[in-house]
Every structure is written in structure tokens, then in C-alpha cells.
Amino acid sequence: MLKKSRPTSAGRRNRIDVVTPGLSKARPTKELLAKGVFKRQGRNNTGKVTVRHRGGGVKRKLRLIEWKRLKLNVPAAVMTVEYDPMRSAHIALLNYKDGAKAYILAPDGLKVGDSVVAGPDSDIKVGNALPMSRIPVGMAIHNIELKPGKGAQLVRTAGTSALIQSKEGKHVIVQLPSKEFRLINAECFATIGQVGNLDFKNRSLGKAGRKRLMGWRPTVRGVAQDPRSHPHGGGEGRSGIGMKYPKTPWGKHALGTKTRSARKYSNKYIIQDRRTKK
Q1: What is the CA radius of gyration of the chain?
Q2: Contact call for residues 186 and 170 (beta carbons, < 8 A)
Q3: 23-27, 54-58, 139-143, 272-276: least confident range
Q4: In this predicted model, what pLDDT tens digit does every residue of 94-118 receive, in sequence order?
Q5: Which of 273, 275, 221 is nearest to 247 (CA)?
Q6: What is the four-CA torsion angle of 219, 225, 230, 234, rounded to 10 degrees?
Q7: Cα angle at 81 between 124 and 75, to 5 degrees?
Q8: Is the dihedral of CA 79, 85, 87, 89 positive or negative?
Q9: Neighbours of 216 (CB within 10 A)
Q10: Three-class DSSP labels, the chain
Q11: For the segment 214-232, what is each residue's pLDDT rounded down to a tens digit?
């Protein structure tokens, strides 16, 4: 549900927030928080900036998400649905029958008190995890593994889901949110349903200060810089980029250049690329 703020100031005039009824206000479970996690400010292990425009922001604690669903055939009750500052989707706290606790991504429609289970013989129900060989064709899924037992790697952001198109021997053809069709091992696990927090993409921060609190620093246009700092810089007054094609600060092609290796091992599993025009 979207909530538009009253225009009592310039910062609130365009602010649109996502309001989720029933979202828990309790503190996160302490034993499910990562220890020793700190912000790298866009730098790698040697201190060199590898991701620009990052820095500052409020302190956040990383929740440990159970991507593998290791407890097979052990039912779990949903205790809470919580906000996670490190991701766009909400998370659900599970309390397993044997007393263990874990966080998973909260799919759309999952409520407090529901029961979920992972295993080959699980019911086709929102929140349950099964091998894709046991999931019917046309079913919406998320949290998809690429290798059996490795843990979920695909379709994890808010509001996304993939569709099982068909099954061919030991593989299934899955349509990803990018419209790419891909072969995936049929023994890989996936979770039934669509990732929750569907209105996340419709929110509006309203002002630059909120973006800074999220750890994002300003981005300066290339044409506004001097020619020593950017290829687009320089010139008298306002001027264009002054070259045949846009460039990065390091002189490389900025638009339309393929960065994926032509010999990447997983290319053979892509049936239809997401950039293919129909």
C-alpha cells in the first residue's frame, strides 16, 4: 500500500512511502544477525575505490537469510514478517518444529501463523520449497538455485517471480523476470510464489537526503567536469560531449558495449537472451 505525504515542505512534497500492514516492529533476532560486518564505502580489500558514489549512510545490521532450506520435511511456523534494511524484500522469521529459527524472504501472501516446509514431497503452497522437477509448469517461483545444494541465487528482489515454461529431461526451462529463458537443473530447489513488497518499485524518496542515508553519494555529470577528470568535460559554456560516442571516465564505451565473455561456461544454458528483440 502506498502512502503519499502531505506537502508540508519541499522534501515531503514528492515523497511516497510503502506501508505494509502487519509488519513487525520488534527488534531482529539476535542470533540471526551477522557479526563483524562493516561498510566498505565502495572500496575493495586493498582500499581502492571499485564502486563509485558510495559512502556514509546509517549503520545497518545484516540478517542471515537461509538460502539453502537445509531442514527438509521439517515444518516451520511463520513468527513475524519483518523489514530488512539490507534488501528490498521483506523477510519472514521461521520457527521450526525442532526449535531452530531462520529467516527467509517473505513471499507475497505469506502471513504470521502460516506453516511452510521444504522437501521433495511438499505441497504446492506459497512459501514451500521443492525441486523444480516437482513444481507444475506455469507456476510462479522465486529463490531459484543454479546448482543443486548451492543455495538460491536468482529472483530474490521485491516483487519479482519467474515462470516454469517446460521440462526437458534433466532440465527445466525457466522464464526469468528479465524475459530471459534459461535451462536449469531440475533438481535445483525453488520457492513457490512471488517475492513480497510488490510496491517497492513505486516508492519515491522525495529528497536527496534520504538517498544519502542509504549510503549513496552524489553523481556529477561528465560534461560538468574538466577535461582532465572526464572525456566529456571542457568546452566554453554549455556544450555536448563532443565525440562520436559517450565514454566512461576511463575512455571506454559507455553505452551498448557487451561486458559478458563470449566463452562464459553458462552461455550454453541460455535459450533466449534478455536482449533478444521479438
Answers
A1: 22
A2: yes
A3: 272-276
A4: 999 999 999 999 999 999 999 999 9
A5: 221
A6: 150
A7: 40
A8: positive
A9: 17
A10: CEEECCCCCCCCCCCEEECCCCCCCCCCCHHHECCCCCCCCCECCCCCECCCCECCCCCCCCECECCCCCCECCCEEEEEEECCCCCCCCEEEEEECCCCEEEEECECCCCCCCEECECCCCCCCCCCEEEHHHCCCCCEEECEECCCCCCEEECCCCCCCEEEEEEECCEEEEECCCCCEEEEECCCEEEECCECCHHHHHCECCCHHHHHHCCECCCCCHHHCCCCCCCCCCCCCCCCCCCCCCECCCCCECCCCCCCCCCCHHHHHEEECCCCCC
A11: 999 999 999 999 999 999 9
Name the grid cell of 204.
Answer: 519515491
Choose among 170, 76, 169: nearest CA to 122: 76
